[in-house]
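This protein record is not my work; I was only asked to verify it. The record follows directly below this note.
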Amino acid sequence: MSIYLDTNIFYNAYSPIEDRFTADWLLNQLSSDFPGVTSEWTIVEMFRALKKQVNLNKIENNDAQVVIDLFLSDIGEDTQKKKLFIIRVKKSYIMAARPFIFNENLYAADAVHTITALQAKVDAFITYDGDFKKLKKIPIINPKKDDFKNSINEIKENYIKKTGKKKLKNK
């Protein structure tokens, strides 16, 4: 697989109160030749993240519902086009999260994302969350970094070489 997308990538892309440009750029890089991977847990985290913004009076409840509907529609379409793979959360992943919670001090959801990414054998984990930076088993790439787009383009090129996929144009 190519890259794992943490929930906050989708949140930044869809939330009306966040800077969406980098997250949008990243999601536009995905294709059937360079797919993204995430966990089905991302969906419920999106629900909660948007509800939190409603609770903080940053967005209206109706607006949050519209955003969620758009998000669900888009990821449904992307999975059909094989641009995005949504991995099921298995009990074995939940059990494997334990050492990441106790040894790395990750939150439960972050530990599940980590296990899912490792099981999917992705080339990198993309997140705005600094809690992942101490993980050594997978490259962590933060979209806030100056070289983010270059890093993604490099991963894309290496993925294409590794999989024998056609040469992709940078969008």
Notes: The mean pLDDT is 92.
